[in-house]
Amino acid sequence: MLDINQIMKILPHRHPFLMVDRILEIEVGKRIVGLKNVTINEPFFPGHFPGHPVMPGVLVIEAMAQVAGILAYQSDESVRDKVTYFVGIDNAKFRKPVMPGDQLRFEIEATGCKRGIWVFSAKALVDGKVVTEAVLKATFADKQS
């Protein structure tokens, strides 16, 4: 289990773009489970949408990617001082809106790694129901000065 302080030692993201509050489970090289508590205080809600706040689907995808990045970081020492780049998002489906008060549970499974491209099967759930799912692909590159 990782708390927010441990997560911030791994991910370079900071408020308002850090989208993971806690890691509940890690099976190195295989799977990870993370949480995000969605509150009305999120900076995107005033504009998306006034009077009907909905978390943008692309931010749910971003949160899943951040959790996947933690799995890669914990699984492969060679990526620990590199930056993560998305190279693909496949089969993304948005099944239900995410609203203030929801708790997102991210269930991410590493399904392969070929030629430096990690592939993850990712799901976001609220109250046990899938709200978003996608296949995420990422690579890692040296940080530029």
Q: If you had to describe this structure to a student in words, what would you say it looks like?
A:
With 145 residues, the protein is an alpha+beta fold. The protein has one domain (4-142): Hotdog Thioesterase (Thiol Ester Dehydrase, Chain A). It is built from two helices and six strands. The chain has a six-stranded antiparallel beta sheet, with helices on one face. The longest helix has 19 residues, at 57-75. The chain is globular.
What is CATH's topology name? Thiol Ester Dehydrase, Chain A
Average predicted local confidence, pLDDT: 96
How far is it from the N-terminal to the C-terminal residue, by CA?
32 Å
By secondary-structure content and strand pairing, the structural class works out as alpha+beta
Domain count: 1
* SSE series: HEEHEEEE
Tell me the total number of β-strands: 6
For the largest beta sheet, what order do the strands appear in spatially? Answer: 1-2-4-5-6-3
Q: Which runs of at least 5 residues are low in confidence (pLDDT < 50)?
A: none
What is the architecture at the second tier of CATH?
Roll
Portion in strands: 35-45%
Task: Outline the fold blueprint.
Blueprint (H helix, E strand, L loop, with lengths): L3 H7 L11 E6 L3 E7 L19 H19 L6 E13 L8 E12 L2 E10 L2 E14 L3
Antiparallel strand pairs: 1-2, 2-4, 3-6, 4-5, 5-6
List keywords for this structure.
145 residues; Thiol Ester Dehydrase, Chain A; six-stranded antiparallel β-sheet
Would you kindly provide a brief summary of this structure?
The model has no long low-confidence stretch (mean pLDDT 96). With 145 residues, this protein is α+β, with helices and mostly antiparallel strands. The relative contact order is 0.20.
